[in-house]
Amino acid sequence: MTTEREPFRSRVHGRVLAAVALGGLLGGTARYGLALAFPTPAGSFPLTTFAVNVSGAFLLALLLVYLVEVRQRAGYARPFAAVGFLGSYTTYSTWMFDTDRLLGGGDHTLALLNVLGSLLAGLAATVLGLAVGRRVTARPGGPHRFRSRFRSRFRSRFRSRFRSRFRRMP
After folding, report:
1. Predicted TM-score of the model (pTM)
2. Where does the pLDDT of residue 63 fall: very low under 50, low under 70, confident under 90, or very high at 90 and above?
3. I need a surface site. Which of 58, 132, 133, 166 has the fewest CB within 10 A?
4. In this predicted structure, what is the pLDDT of residue 10?
5. 91: closest CA among 42, 125, 56?
6. What number is the average pLDDT over the span 74-96?
7. Distance CA 110, CA 108 (A)
8. Which residue would you say has higher pLDDT here, 113 or 73?
9. Do residues 143 and 66 touch, judged by C-beta distance below 8 A?
10. Does the structure show a pLDDT above 80 at 7?
11. How far is CA 106 from CA 40, 111, 115, in A?
């Protein structure tokens, strides 16, 4: 007896794909805007790509600590922010293009510095993001201490009214 599996497309919820696509659009646009604002001159170290990738590694670690260890029910936040936005904000292709450009120009030292420096700085940024995220969540009140009492009260009242109205609907 064989069971047929559903096609991949039917298993993936359309809203998740939309969240990834929207996050990717915004993240790629942010990266492109930074590349236009801070262009890398030919033959120099690609500092913009380096800064984008390292900051993206830090932000991804920080975000995942919050989503996995604190919020736990992330909904569309993880596909939107982690996969979509930060996935397209950080860029492997531009990193390798910059490295190839440096190698093509004969700047082997800068190319090696770009590869190893990006790897090591990205790893350090990830470790730092995890540490900062866990430290913030370990404090009394955790990450939620920044929320105002009014906002929390408003949300709880809104949710209870919203749920009670739709429970009555046939």
Report:
1. 0.74
2. very high
3. 166
4. 56
5. 56
6. 91
7. 5
8. 113
9. yes
10. no
11. 16, 9, 15
Q: Which long-range contacts (CB under 8 A, 24 or more apart) does 35-40 make?
A: 35/94, 40/98
CA nearest to 134, candidates 63, 57, 77, 45: 63
Could you identify the residue written with the tokens 């996935």? 87
In DSSP notation, 106-149 reads T-HHHHHHHHHHHHHHHHHHHHHHHHHHHHHHHSTTGGGGGS-H
- Helices (H), ranges, the chain: 8-11, 14-37, 47-64, 77, 86-89, 92-104, 108-138, 149-167
Q: Tell the burial category of 11 from Cβ atoms under 10 Å away from its Cβ (0-12, 13-18, 19+).
A: exposed
Task: Please state, in angstroms and rounded to a whole number, the distance separating the CA atoms of residues 22 and 7.
Answer: 24
Compute the distance between CA of residue 105 and CA of residue 108 in angstroms, rounded to an integer: 8
pLDDT tens for 105-125 read 999 999 999 999 999 999 999
Residue 57 near residue 126, CB atoms below 8 Å: yes
